[in-house]
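Incident log, structure service

09:12 report received: a user says their structure output differs between two submissions of the same chain.
09:20 pulled the input from the user's history:
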Amino acid sequence: MYNLLRQKNRQLNRWAAGLLLLIASQQQVSAQLRDYLNLPDHDSKKYYLGIGLIYNNARFQVSQHPSFLSNDSVMVVEPENTGGFGLAGMHTLRLSPRFEIRAIFPQLLFAYKNLTYHIKYPDPSKDETAIMSKKVESFLLGIPIHLKFRSDRIGNFRVYMFGGGKIEYDLASNSTARKAEDLVKLKKFDYGVEAGVGFNFYFPVFILSPEIKISNGLGNIHSRDPDLKYSSAIDKLNSRMIIFSLIFEG
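09:34 re-ran on a clean worker, output below:
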Protein backbone atom coordinates (compact mmCIF):
# COMPACT_ATOMS: atom_id res chain seq x y z
CA MET A 1 0.00 0.00 0.00
CA TYR A 2 2.80 2.34 0.92
CA ASN A 3 4.62 1.63 -2.35
CA LEU A 4 1.42 2.27 -4.31
CA LEU A 5 1.01 5.69 -2.66
CA ARG A 6 4.64 6.53 -3.41
CA GLN A 7 4.14 5.65 -7.07
CA LYS A 8 1.01 7.83 -7.26
CA ASN A 9 2.87 10.73 -5.64
CA ARG A 10 5.66 10.36 -8.15
CA GLN A 11 3.17 10.42 -11.00
CA LEU A 12 1.48 13.53 -9.58
CA ASN A 13 4.85 15.21 -9.19
CA ARG A 14 5.72 14.38 -12.78
CA TRP A 15 2.40 15.73 -14.01
CA ALA A 16 2.85 18.89 -11.96
CA ALA A 17 6.40 19.33 -13.25
CA GLY A 18 5.21 18.74 -16.80
CA LEU A 19 2.38 21.28 -16.34
CA LEU A 20 4.78 23.89 -14.97
CA LEU A 21 7.17 23.22 -17.84
CA LEU A 22 4.32 23.60 -20.34
CA ILE A 23 3.20 26.91 -18.77
CA ALA A 24 6.77 28.19 -18.74
CA SER A 25 7.31 27.20 -22.38
CA GLN A 26 4.04 28.91 -23.41
CA GLN A 27 5.09 32.07 -21.64
CA GLN A 28 8.46 31.90 -23.35
CA VAL A 29 6.82 31.38 -26.76
CA SER A 30 4.43 34.29 -26.11
CA ALA A 31 7.37 36.51 -25.17
CA GLN A 32 9.25 35.42 -28.28
CA LEU A 33 6.21 36.11 -30.46
CA ARG A 34 5.83 39.53 -28.87
CA ASP A 35 9.48 40.24 -29.55
CA TYR A 36 8.95 39.06 -33.15
CA LEU A 37 5.99 41.39 -33.74
CA ASN A 38 6.89 44.83 -35.01
CA LEU A 39 4.98 47.71 -33.39
CA PRO A 40 3.01 45.36 -31.07
CA ASP A 41 1.25 48.27 -29.32
CA HIS A 42 0.09 50.00 -32.51
CA ASP A 43 -3.36 48.39 -32.44
CA SER A 44 -4.04 50.01 -29.08
CA LYS A 45 -3.68 53.50 -30.58
CA LYS A 46 -6.95 55.37 -30.83
CA TYR A 47 -5.68 57.81 -33.47
CA TYR A 48 -2.67 57.85 -35.76
CA LEU A 49 -1.30 59.73 -38.77
CA GLY A 50 0.21 58.81 -42.10
CA ILE A 51 1.32 60.11 -45.46
CA GLY A 52 0.54 58.67 -48.90
CA LEU A 53 2.40 58.77 -52.21
CA ILE A 54 -0.09 58.42 -55.05
CA TYR A 55 -0.15 57.37 -58.67
CA ASN A 56 -3.44 57.75 -60.53
CA ASN A 57 -4.76 56.60 -63.89
CA ALA A 58 -7.61 58.90 -64.90
CA ARG A 59 -10.13 59.18 -67.69
CA PHE A 60 -13.51 60.71 -68.52
CA GLN A 61 -16.77 58.89 -69.00
CA VAL A 62 -18.29 60.78 -71.91
CA SER A 63 -22.02 61.26 -72.56
CA GLN A 64 -22.77 62.77 -75.94
CA HIS A 65 -25.14 65.69 -76.34
CA PRO A 66 -28.30 65.16 -78.44
CA SER A 67 -26.95 67.69 -80.95
CA PHE A 68 -24.01 65.35 -81.58
CA LEU A 69 -26.04 63.44 -84.17
CA SER A 70 -26.54 66.62 -86.18
CA ASN A 71 -22.91 67.66 -85.87
CA ASP A 72 -21.30 67.49 -89.31
CA SER A 73 -17.74 67.98 -88.07
CA VAL A 74 -17.05 65.88 -84.94
CA MET A 75 -17.71 62.21 -85.66
CA VAL A 76 -16.29 60.48 -82.55
CA VAL A 77 -15.21 61.58 -79.07
CA GLU A 78 -13.02 59.06 -77.23
CA PRO A 79 -11.60 59.34 -73.69
CA GLU A 80 -7.98 58.37 -73.02
CA ASN A 81 -6.41 56.81 -69.91
CA THR A 82 -3.65 59.08 -68.63
CA GLY A 83 -1.35 58.87 -65.61
CA GLY A 84 -0.83 61.40 -62.84
CA PHE A 85 0.56 61.66 -59.32
CA GLY A 86 -0.27 63.10 -55.92
CA LEU A 87 0.31 63.37 -52.20
CA ALA A 88 -2.04 62.85 -49.26
CA GLY A 89 -2.21 63.12 -45.47
CA MET A 90 -3.93 60.28 -43.58
CA HIS A 91 -5.92 60.69 -40.34
CA THR A 92 -7.23 57.42 -38.88
CA LEU A 93 -9.54 56.94 -35.89
CA ARG A 94 -9.93 53.42 -34.50
CA LEU A 95 -13.56 52.58 -33.71
CA SER A 96 -13.08 48.93 -32.74
CA PRO A 97 -10.59 46.11 -33.38
CA ARG A 98 -12.28 45.55 -36.75
CA PHE A 99 -13.36 49.03 -37.89
CA GLU A 100 -11.61 52.34 -38.44
CA ILE A 101 -12.69 55.61 -40.00
CA ARG A 102 -10.14 57.45 -42.12
CA ALA A 103 -10.13 61.01 -43.43
CA ILE A 104 -7.64 61.86 -46.17
CA PHE A 105 -6.76 65.54 -45.97
CA PRO A 106 -5.24 67.16 -47.76
CA GLN A 107 -5.26 65.00 -50.88
CA LEU A 108 -3.58 66.74 -53.81
CA LEU A 109 -3.81 65.05 -57.21
CA PHE A 110 -2.35 66.12 -60.53
CA ALA A 111 -4.61 64.40 -63.05
CA TYR A 112 -4.65 64.44 -66.83
CA LYS A 113 -7.82 63.31 -68.62
CA ASN A 114 -7.44 63.58 -72.37
CA LEU A 115 -10.05 63.47 -75.13
CA THR A 116 -9.52 62.39 -78.73
CA TYR A 117 -11.76 63.85 -81.47
CA HIS A 118 -12.22 62.38 -84.92
CA ILE A 119 -12.92 65.28 -87.27
CA LYS A 120 -14.79 64.81 -90.54
CA TYR A 121 -13.81 68.16 -92.06
CA PRO A 122 -10.58 69.40 -90.40
CA ASP A 123 -9.76 73.08 -90.84
CA PRO A 124 -6.08 73.47 -91.89
CA SER A 125 -6.19 77.19 -91.02
CA LYS A 126 -6.72 76.19 -87.36
CA ASP A 127 -4.06 73.45 -87.46
CA GLU A 128 -6.76 70.81 -87.31
CA THR A 129 -6.16 67.24 -88.41
CA ALA A 130 -8.46 64.27 -88.81
CA ILE A 131 -7.63 63.18 -85.26
CA MET A 132 -7.28 65.84 -82.55
CA SER A 133 -6.15 65.04 -79.00
CA LYS A 134 -6.97 67.60 -76.32
CA LYS A 135 -5.31 67.47 -72.92
CA VAL A 136 -7.44 68.45 -69.91
CA GLU A 137 -5.35 69.10 -66.80
CA SER A 138 -6.71 69.15 -63.26
CA PHE A 139 -5.12 69.97 -59.92
CA LEU A 140 -7.53 68.40 -57.44
CA LEU A 141 -7.83 69.19 -53.75
CA GLY A 142 -9.89 66.35 -52.29
CA ILE A 143 -11.27 65.12 -48.96
CA PRO A 144 -12.13 61.40 -49.13
CA ILE A 145 -13.62 59.75 -46.01
CA HIS A 146 -13.52 55.95 -45.72
CA LEU A 147 -14.81 53.27 -43.38
CA LYS A 148 -12.18 50.51 -43.11
CA PHE A 149 -12.76 46.86 -42.22
CA ARG A 150 -9.59 45.09 -41.01
CA SER A 151 -8.72 41.41 -40.84
CA ASP A 152 -6.89 39.79 -37.93
CA ARG A 153 -3.21 40.56 -37.77
CA ILE A 154 -1.08 37.61 -38.91
CA GLY A 155 2.39 38.28 -37.61
CA ASN A 156 3.47 41.49 -39.31
CA PHE A 157 0.78 41.40 -42.00
CA ARG A 158 -2.87 42.45 -42.25
CA VAL A 159 -5.47 42.93 -45.01
CA TYR A 160 -8.17 45.62 -45.04
CA MET A 161 -11.04 46.77 -47.25
CA PHE A 162 -12.68 50.18 -47.33
CA GLY A 163 -15.37 52.26 -48.95
CA GLY A 164 -16.68 55.80 -48.69
CA GLY A 165 -17.17 59.11 -50.46
CA LYS A 166 -15.19 62.13 -51.59
CA ILE A 167 -15.51 65.78 -52.48
CA GLU A 168 -13.03 67.51 -54.78
CA TYR A 169 -12.18 71.05 -55.82
CA ASP A 170 -10.28 71.63 -59.07
CA LEU A 171 -7.72 74.35 -58.39
CA ALA A 172 -6.85 74.52 -62.10
CA SER A 173 -10.44 74.95 -63.26
CA ASN A 174 -11.85 78.25 -64.36
CA SER A 175 -14.94 77.52 -66.41
CA THR A 176 -15.62 81.20 -67.09
CA ALA A 177 -12.09 82.21 -68.12
CA ARG A 178 -10.61 79.23 -69.99
CA LYS A 179 -9.41 80.13 -73.45
CA ALA A 180 -11.57 79.09 -76.36
CA GLU A 181 -8.79 76.97 -77.81
CA ASP A 182 -8.84 74.84 -74.66
CA LEU A 183 -12.16 73.56 -76.02
CA VAL A 184 -13.27 71.75 -72.84
CA LYS A 185 -14.30 73.67 -69.74
CA LEU A 186 -14.56 71.96 -66.35
CA LYS A 187 -16.52 72.89 -63.26
CA LYS A 188 -14.71 73.45 -59.99
CA PHE A 189 -16.51 70.97 -57.72
CA ASP A 190 -17.05 67.24 -57.96
CA TYR A 191 -18.19 64.49 -55.61
CA GLY A 192 -18.17 60.71 -55.81
CA VAL A 193 -17.68 57.29 -54.26
CA GLU A 194 -14.57 55.22 -53.61
CA ALA A 195 -13.77 51.61 -52.68
CA GLY A 196 -10.60 49.56 -52.48
CA VAL A 197 -8.34 47.11 -50.71
CA GLY A 198 -4.99 47.46 -48.95
CA PHE A 199 -2.30 45.51 -47.13
CA ASN A 200 -0.47 46.45 -43.91
CA PHE A 201 3.19 45.41 -43.60
CA TYR A 202 4.53 46.12 -40.11
CA PHE A 203 8.17 47.21 -39.89
CA PRO A 204 10.08 48.10 -36.72
CA VAL A 205 9.42 51.86 -36.95
CA PHE A 206 6.56 52.28 -39.46
CA ILE A 207 3.75 50.52 -41.33
CA LEU A 208 3.87 50.33 -45.14
CA SER A 209 0.45 49.93 -46.78
CA PRO A 210 0.18 49.40 -50.55
CA GLU A 211 -3.39 50.25 -51.50
CA ILE A 212 -5.49 50.28 -54.67
CA LYS A 213 -8.90 51.92 -55.04
CA ILE A 214 -11.47 52.87 -57.63
CA SER A 215 -12.69 56.47 -57.46
CA ASN A 216 -15.76 57.43 -59.50
CA GLY A 217 -17.13 60.95 -59.75
CA LEU A 218 -20.91 61.25 -59.69
CA GLY A 219 -21.23 64.88 -60.74
CA ASN A 220 -21.20 66.25 -64.27
CA ILE A 221 -18.01 68.33 -64.37
CA HIS A 222 -18.42 69.51 -67.96
CA SER A 223 -19.27 73.21 -68.37
CA ARG A 224 -20.77 72.98 -71.83
CA ASP A 225 -20.27 75.82 -74.29
CA PRO A 226 -22.63 75.52 -77.30
CA ASP A 227 -20.53 78.02 -79.25
CA LEU A 228 -17.51 75.65 -79.32
CA LYS A 229 -17.92 72.69 -81.63
CA TYR A 230 -15.73 70.43 -79.47
CA SER A 231 -17.61 71.30 -76.30
CA SER A 232 -21.07 71.32 -77.83
CA ALA A 233 -20.69 67.69 -78.91
CA ILE A 234 -20.44 66.63 -75.22
CA ASP A 235 -23.26 66.65 -72.70
CA LYS A 236 -21.69 65.15 -69.56
CA LEU A 237 -18.20 64.32 -68.35
CA ASN A 238 -17.79 62.10 -65.28
CA SER A 239 -14.43 61.47 -63.68
CA ARG A 240 -13.05 57.92 -63.42
CA MET A 241 -9.84 57.04 -61.60
CA ILE A 242 -7.84 54.04 -60.48
CA ILE A 243 -5.52 55.13 -57.67
CA PHE A 244 -2.52 53.23 -56.33
CA SER A 245 -1.02 54.52 -53.08
CA LEU A 246 1.99 53.72 -50.90
CA ILE A 247 1.00 54.79 -47.37
CA PHE A 248 3.48 55.24 -44.51
CA GLU A 249 1.96 55.22 -41.00
CA GLY A 250 3.37 55.14 -37.49
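09:41 both user submissions now match this output. Likely a transient worker issue. Closing.
09:42 reviewer note: Residues 38 and 203 are 6 Å apart (CA to CA). The chain has two helices and twelve strands.
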